[in-house]
Amino acid sequence: MAPAPNPDLRNQRSHRAILDAALELAARDGYAKVTVEAIAAAAGVGKQTIYRWWPSKAAVILEALNDRTGPFSGVPDTGDIAADIAVAAQGVIEALGTGLGTIWRGLVADAQGDPRLAESLLNDFMEPRNKAWQDRLDKAVAAGELRADVPTRTMVELLFGPIYYRLLLGTDPLDPDNTTTRVDYLLNGLRPH
Amino acid sequence: MAPAPNPDLRNQRSHRAILDAALELAARDGYAKVTVEAIAAAAGVGKQTIYRWWPSKAAVILEALNDRTGPFSGVPDTGDIAADIAVAAQGVIEALGTGLGTIWRGLVADAQGDPRLAESLLNDFMEPRNKAWQDRLDKAVAAGELRADVPTRTMVELLFGPIYYRLLLGTDPLDPDNTTTRVDYLLNGLRPH
Amino acid sequence: MAPAPNPDLRNQRSHRAILDAALELAARDGYAKVTVEAIAAAAGVGKQTIYRWWPSKAAVILEALNDRTGPFSGVPDTGDIAADIAVAAQGVIEALGTGLGTIWRGLVADAQGDPRLAESLLNDFMEPRNKAWQDRLDKAVAAGELRADVPTRTMVELLFGPIYYRLLLGTDPLDPDNTTTRVDYLLNGLRPH
Amino acid sequence: MAPAPNPDLRNQRSHRAILDAALELAARDGYAKVTVEAIAAAAGVGKQTIYRWWPSKAAVILEALNDRTGPFSGVPDTGDIAADIAVAAQGVIEALGTGLGTIWRGLVADAQGDPRLAESLLNDFMEPRNKAWQDRLDKAVAAGELRADVPTRTMVELLFGPIYYRLLLGTDPLDPDNTTTRVDYLLNGLRPH
DNA sequence: TCGTAACCGAGACGGTACGTCACGTCTTCTG
DNA sequence: CAGAAGACGTGACGTACCGTCTCGGTTACGA
Predict the structure, then answer these.
(1) Contact D162, C158 (CB under 8 A)
(2) Residue A185 CA: distances (Å) to CA of A192, B155, D132
(3) Tag placement on chain D: N or C end, fewer CB within 10 Å?
(4) Do C122 and C99 belong together in one domain?
(5) Listed residues B42, B68, B94: the one ending a domain
(6) How many angstroms separate the CA of residue B13 from the nearest CA in chain A?
(7) Where is the HTH tetR-type domain (chains A, B, C, D) (predicted)?
């Protein structure tokens, strides 16, 4: 049988130190240069202590990222769905433009070859945000601001997918200023009126 | 300074063998499991011969992928822009659903920590395809099928970005069948008429 | 600074296996053909484990040689210095005539381009033997068997230097039988009486 | 059949340039750091041109060394054999104390794992010198300065072997000043009179 | 209150792949 | 058409991290 360590016995001080060290190293040296050994050393912790609780450096950093960005809350709701989306898109662009964006990109990168990480990344990071937006969009649909025949899950993808895509591929720099225009394109469509 | 070997002296047989071996290994074992040593061995080539001409395994595989998918050509042009986009989207989804998609994802992953690779991936792989689509969309604009006030570069991103995004994040499986619907959403917008 | 691993934590089983493998490979394939990788493989050990404790293959083999020939003891002392030297010279010739001689020659060879190894070879291998002989010769001087005005360190060199020299240069095959004669030349001098 | 290049066709200019470059590089960077590629580059010559005429870098450097130190001549002959030996020993010590000594040591090192080189080193470099000394000692024997019952070949070994030995092992620094004393030890023997 | 069992730090271990170096051979182009 | 230039297959180098595995030392719970 697996030893199955008891999470209650987890040393709080170590846990914190690991998450803090992981995030600081990732921000300082770049995601790819972080190693489990370096995290352990920086946290003043044995390597085994990390492997006891996480399967990989990516898992540590994902939890650290989640821990830092905190429980996601902020879907704006002013009643004007277009404005709310634009503001939120600006927020995403700004957040991902910092070191956190680089870390997120590193996690996505590792997830390409690690299905378990991909699942965690989805469940623990992306989905809560998507879910909150689906709810906001549902409300907008109910208010008659958006088409009722488009699944809101699809809407979220169409609205935010291009931003994440550009961040990963780096086609062009992300500019928070023209989000309003882009939202207009999506809401009103690309056909002439 | 680097000695910068003369490309004219490159051995054609080795060059081919390397590209073929790289692609076959990547398809068989998965991008992440490929190593430069394995490529060299499979190609019957010295490791140094690879490092002489490419900076990394990713660069080899990128060239191999480009070499295999050949000179990009296929933007459909039936006169119906919506149908053309839908067909193309299906094509992308089908192409990336195979082993080639996994390879492409691996390249994007490596590019997150390797700016030079990111640049190559953009210039050598993505941009030619984007460019071809911009031309097709320009034509559609001229034909009055699309809004003239939206940069076609942006259109390409809005149309295909979500597909690539979903491929990388794996939010939901990609389904080639509903591309028509999705194109409709984008062309007509998410607002009620 | 180097991390300087703690020798107390050295794994005894690995240590032994490395020394044994090193000596066996050197004896079987010849000193020059031994590689660190081969030692590691033969010892069932990671290459890094060798590099953790020794700076080079030569250092491993030197320790292995020292370990095998054991703590040097045997300076004969029958009271007849001429006979004792002759016997010892025979011993040296016989010992170095075997595979061990080839190994020793390899170490001397490497030491020509590696001052640290040269120092180790001197301190750990040659000097203990020289020292023991100096003591024996001191006793002979006290007994009036040898000149008191010649430093015994120099004597050791004059007595054994030519043997080692011939081994290295291979001028003529070493013959254990005529050691007595050669000792006579050295003790009584090359001038006619 | 072996191609067996005709030595007459050997390009004189290249030959010279190779020998000169080899010796200069060896003197400047140390024997061990010299590579065939570096010699070729420094001589403005293709690598193949070196391999056509010599089997290894050691062979090149041996010929270069021989070429530089020129045809050996200098055995002093004043009629006083003790003085002549002392002067010659000083000469050896001085010569080998310079960069040439380092080169010679490198050659001896390589010869330990290369029987063909060992043979060349002996035949082309050591033996001529030994031979000349044997002749000088034969004369001294005839003059009654040295014992007639000791082979002069052995004498040469006893006289010079310890010097070469010390140079290779580096037991103590070589001092040209006390050669007279050392010759005295050897000629008069280590026993009290 | 005191075992005793788990967690902890430290870091050595067997591995895998890295990117570099030099070898000795082979090929191409040029003077 | 000889030879410089240098690409080639080969193989070992020494390094970096991986994820696992001892080691004592230190909690912290239950008898």
Answers:
(1) yes
(2) 11, 9, 99
(3) N
(4) yes
(5) B68
(6) 31
(7) 12-72
